[in-house]
Every structure is written in structure tokens, then in C-alpha cells.
Amino acid sequence: MFDFLQGFAYGLFLSCLPWFLAGMLDPRLAVPAEPPTRWRVILRYVFGVPFLAFVLWLTSLWGGFSPSFLGWVAGLAALAVEIPAERGWRRWRARREARRRQAVAQARAREQRADAERARREAGVAELDPAAPPADADDVVLALCGAKRALLHARRADLAGHADRVYTRYTRVLDVLADKFDAREVTFDRSRAMVVQVGLTAADNLRAMGALAAGVAGIDAAYVRRRLAEMGPRGVADERDALQRRLDLVADTERRLAERAATNETALTTLDNAVVVMSRVNTDRPRAEVGAEQALNDLKRFIDKAERYGHNT
Fold it and tell me: Does position 74 have pLDDT exceeding 50, yes or no?
């Protein structure tokens, strides 16, 4: 046993030099850890493995000085076997950790969706199912379903909720209109047309947001930031510039999405105002072709007219 151990120590020590030279030429050949660097090669084959061989040699001296040939061969081949085995073990651990992180992220996402759905239900927000639109869905509702479907395909569930909010306000305004005005009146037709224009404008805006989000859906911003942090200022300039351009694309897209989301918030506020104003009216009777600003201005003018109509009755 001590003979084999002593021969193994000699073989392991002698194998450090060729592995060190190979690692200095290409660290990926001699270092199983990520990222493979020359510093790891130096630490491994100048200090780590020689120290291990020295400890094994000291231990083997209890049996005297008689290294075996089989131990020499095993020591020379040890690193050739250990490096692929360690690399495979590290990759297995990385895959297991990635699966664990993915499971945690999915569980967190499910919890967030459940919390968001609970909050929407408490707030009275109706939810659209893009795969099964309501039976009485008009062009606005169908357009909102399509926009929500596009946002979900782009993995932006946080923005897809805007379609539910627009749908809720839109149906609420139509219900108030049907309750306050006669469907045969010109006022009803004009006001409904303006509400439809606002709904179509919001749906067009959401569909554009889906197209924007889909454009950067394949960019993993977290990976890009992590890679830039690993590279540091001494990284390859071309790779660093390419990674930075990806981040710039994501940032610019998020800015455009925020601008369009702000436009939708304006539409929602206007629809809310319309509901409030039309609810105050006292009577005894039970696709967007214009720009967003024009449609919203039309609806605001309708609100003013509706208030005057209520005062005159």
C-alpha cells in the first residue's frame, strides 16, 4: 500500500508540469472550474497539486523508500481522469442549481400572480381570457384580447394586466351610458363612438407594447449584467461593447414601454372621469382611426357636454 502511494505521489508530482504548460496555453484544458483563468492554473499546478503530492509522499515514507511502477502510472494518469470528472460534477451542480433557481422563480411568479389576481379581484377588475373572449365581445374587447395575448407571449404578464384594466373601465362606461341615455338618442351614439375610439386607441397602444416587448424578450438582461461584472474593465472591448449595446436596447425598450403605459394610464383616468360624470347626470330615461390625444380630447369634451346636459334637465 505504501509502495503504491509513494509511486502515486511521484507520478502526480511529475504530471503537474505538462498540465501547467497546457493550462498556460489554454486554461480551459487544465482547469475544470468556471471561469478558467491562468491564475487558477498557477494556484492549482504550482501550489495545490504539488502540495497534495508532497503530503502523500510524506505519508508513504512509513513504508520505506520503494515506489511501485503501478503507483507511478496511476499518479501520471490521475489528473487526466480527475479533470473531466470534476468538470462533469461542476456542470451537474450548476444544472441542479439552475433548476432550483428556476423552480424558486416559478414559485415566486405564481405567488405574485396569485397576489395580483387577488388584488384585482378586490379592486373589481375583470380579467380577460385571450383564448376565450366574452360571448358579447365587440371590436374593442377582441382587440384587447389580442393585445393581452401578445404581451403574455412576450413574457410580460405585468403589462398584460393593463388590458384587464382597460376592459373593466370600457365595459363600465358602456354600462353607465346604457343606463343614463336612450340608445335611440344621438347623444348616446356619439358618446359611445368616442368611448369606442378611446378603447381602440388603448388596445392599439397595448398591441404596440407587445411588439416592443417581444423584440427584447430573447435578451437576458440579468445574464448580460452578470457577464459585464465578471469581465470588469479589463475585459475584451468588443465583447463589452456588444453586451453594453444589449443593455441599451433593453433600457430604451423599457423607456418606450413606460411612455406607452403612461398614455394608457391617461386613458384609464379619462374613462374613470367619464363614469363619474355620467353617473351624476339626472334624467328620467332609463379600431382607432384617430390619434391617442385626439381620442382622449374628444372624450373629455363629451364629459363637459354631459355635465351641461345634466344641469339642463
Answer: yes
